[in-house]
Amino acid sequence: MNAVGNKVFQALTRFLKQDLDLLEIDANERTITHRVAIYLQELFPEMDVDCEYNRDDHDPKEMYLPGGEGDAYDTDAQTVYPDIIVHRRKTGENLLVMEFKKTSSRVDDKKDFMKLHEFKTQLRYQYAIFVEFDVGFSSIGISRVEWVNA
Fold first, then answer.
1. Which of 86, 90, 81 is nearest to 62 (CA)?
2. Which top-level group of life is the source organism from (predicted)?
3. Which domain holds residue 138?
4. Is the CA virtual torsion 19, 112, 79, 122 positive or negative?
């Protein structure tokens, strides 16, 4: 495992130790990713760690997604809101993008994987990771972690 993977593993492990109750109660995905982002920021002090950050300098962070439908303001591309990114604001230095899903979600994860692939291809993120959490009282924890290659 590389240094970035090690830090992600540390952040997820700390989340499970300190915030497992959020998975037990099936808390909102934003609540969960916020907590993971706090732990990542401690591990990447020289970088910016942001949740649902949609800026590329001053402009919205946009990507062309096959078969996607943008909102009324997205005429050619879609504004994207990644769950967590590790980057340097106002630069092109994009280290890590992460998408999260809970097992209670009814939304297919195919779009998450497509977005992660495009983050690597179009926005030049070095690493892209998908994380799925088991939620509820019967089974809680991480059900899978997948690295996405461009």
1. 81
2. Bacteria
3. 3-147
4. positive
> CB under 8 Å, gap of 24 or more: what pairs does 14-17 form?
14/39, 15/39, 16/141, 16/142
Which domain CATH number covers 80? 3.90.1570
CA distance readout (Å), 27 to 31, 50, 52? 7, 19, 17
Alpha carbons 133 and 20: distance in angstroms, whole number: 10
Which tokens hold the place of 131? 């994380």
Per-residue pLDDT of 26-64, as tens digits, reads 999 999 999 999 999 999 999 999 998 765 555 555 666
* Better-predicted residue by pLDDT, 129 or 108: 129
Q: How many domains does the chain have?
A: 1
Query: Residue 73 has what pLDDT?
Result: 43
Torsions phi, psi for 112 (to 5 deg): -60, -45
132 and 109 Cβ atoms separated by less than 8 Å: yes
Phi, psi of 59 (to 5 degrees): -95, 155
Model pLDDT, residue 137: 74
